Amino acid sequence: MTPLPEVDARGLLCPLPVLRLRKALMALPQGGMLRLIATDSMALVDVPHYCEVAGHAMVALRDLGDGAHEFTVARGPSAPSAAGGLTPEDM
């Protein structure tokens, strides 16, 4: 099985992990999956919220230790290529 693409957002603070996630998801086809690794504690709130409002699916969440969390996210069908979703002002 091919490993999923990974977005390493360790050390980045809100809203950067979600903005990096959004950019990476836009490069994937519908149903495409990736992993986001973040150390910002707000990512535990922001990533699920972003997925819900932008039409993506948060498939899994795993605590990696040392304050890092791994989010597995699938691009949803309602995710537009450039418009919609959250903007930095929404965060």
UniProtKB/TrEMBL annotation:
Residues 7-31 form the UPF0033 domain. One of its GO terms (molecular function) is transferase activity. Pfam families: TusA. Keywords: Transferase. SUPFAM superfamilies: SirA-like. Belongs to the sulfur carrier protein TusA family. This is Sulfurtransferase TusA family protein. The lineage of its organism: Bacteria, Pseudomonadati, Pseudomonadota, Alphaproteobacteria, Rhodobacterales.
